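Pilot study result, target chain (138 residues):
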Amino acid sequence: SNDQLKEHRGYAEIVQQLYPQLEAAIRKAELKIEKKAERITVSGHSLGSAVGAGLLQALRAAGQFSELEAFLFAQPRSFKHLDDACSMKDSVLDIRNINDPVVMASEVYEGLGKQVAFDGAAFVGAVKPEAFSCRRFS
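Predicted structure:
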């Protein structure tokens, strides 16, 4: 564990608000299935992924689950002083567009997981807006 691990104050405040709700939801699910949860998977996009990363660190520190994993999309960097164990590179995928300005602006911090980066260039113009139209064509 890393006693020096710090999270961005704004994200940390949200994590503190949500953690008791997460614990209650886990307990409720365990009672329903009559089995202790062993694995927790977190997923989120942007703000949700930064908060998810914080919740994952809180769950890791609590030590109640044998397996923690995450799929974090466009994760703003929110940690300082991540050591190898805290970075969770073996169980977290950090999926991001390298041109995302929110992620780029947060580079002063560190993110969880193994980075999977893409630039989106292959997708530009590939999907036409009319593909999502509700009109029926005869």
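One observation from the pilot: The helical segments are 9-33, 47-62, 84-87, 101-105. A full batch analysis is planned for the follow-on phase.
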